[in-house]
Amino acid sequence: MSFPVHRPRRLRKTELLRGLVRETRLTVANFIYPMFVCPGAIVRQEVSSMPGVFQQSADKIVEDCREVESLGIRGVILFGLPETKDPRGASSLQKDGVVQRAIEAIRKAKLNLIVITDVCLCEYTDHGHCGVIENGEVANDATLEILAEQSLSHARAGADIVAPSDMMDGRVAAIRKKLDENKFADLPILSYAAKYCSSFYGPFREAADSAPQFGDRRSYQMDSANSREALKEVALDLEEGADMIMVKPALPYLDIITRVRREFSVPVAAYNVSGEYSMVKAAAQKGWLDEKRAALEILTGIQRAGADVILTYHAKDAARWLK
């Protein structure tokens, strides 16, 4: 018998020993912090369902980015709340749009941050869907040129990475073509390749004012029961020119992160989404769990599953805790 010769507890006796043999080491360098940009100046409105997360004007975004930089977090991803909405999300293309202004403000402040922009229409359309509507349905091909133009607008404003989250078929190819034709061949695309239709997006839809006004997103976001399909989606996006891929959400899809990590030799991101964040916050406020321990355990689990990059609203708190 192996016992008592083999005693795994020997290496768990102290924190120094546990740290010495730790297999997964969570670091701030893996984090991307999501931010919500709104119109105006000196605006900082907390999202009621996401304590500690704010809708902010570009000037306040810059202030927050200074803190993000100081904590050693390498980048942010920007979501926009436009002044006006219409059926085709035209405001997402404007040179002086909310996201474009925020990018320029961050660049002007000379912050050492990677600026990623979410590319989608849901925040900009009056119907809240991720594509244009034709005959009562989300029209895939009619949406592609708008997404490509939105990406180009973000590139011209100074984005480091564009991240299409819409889940339209062919959007990576359309964006890559548009960027290459306009001398942005070196701009990377981080594709939300395996984005599932999830109940965990609820708080985000308040933060981004992006809830669909009719129906749901099941016709274009992935079915939560499917895993092989995720590998197909990732393969297609890489074939179309994606440089990095994302799995979203993270916690219910750790198996997907692992399968993608094993199958593909590209950077893999995972989005620790709003509902996952808000559950921890709500339970901590009730005294039902320790927020710090729970959040760090979750983030470690996401990294252990295979994520190279973690988009998380816990990023600033986790950065402080890890110090």
Describe the SSE topology.
Layout: H1 15-20, E1 31-37, E2 44-46, E3 54-56, H2 58-70, E4 75-80, H3 98-108, E5 114-119, E6 133-134, E7 137-138, H4 140-157, E8 161-164, H5 171-181, E9 190-195, H6 202-207, H7 228-240, E10 244-248, H8 254-263, E11 268-272, H9 274-285, H10 291-305, E12 309-312, H11 315-322
Parallel strand pairs: 1-3, 1-4, 1-12, 4-5, 5-8, 9-10, 10-11, 11-12
Antiparallel strand pairs: 2-3, 6-7
Helix pairs in contact: 2-3, 4-5, 5-7
Q: What do these coordinates show?
A:
The chain is α/β, with parallel strands linked by helices and 323 residues long. The protein has a single domain (26-322), classed as TIM Barrel (Alpha-Beta Barrel). It has helices at residues 15-20, 58-70, 98-108, 140-157, 171-181, 202-207, 228-240, 254-263, 274-285, 291-305, 315-322, and strands at 31-37, 44-46, 54-56, 75-80, 114-119, 133-134, 137-138, 161-164, 190-195, 244-248, 268-272, 309-312. Strands 1, 2, 3, 4, 5, 8, 9, 10, 11 and 12 form a ten-stranded mixed beta sheet that branches. A two-stranded antiparallel ribbon has the order 6-7. A hairpin with a 2-residue loop joins strand 6 (133-134) and strand 7. Helix 2 (58-70) packs across helix 3, helix 4 crosses helix 5 (171-181) and helix 5 packs parallel to helix 7 (228-240). The protein starts with 14 loop residues before the first helix and ends with a helix.
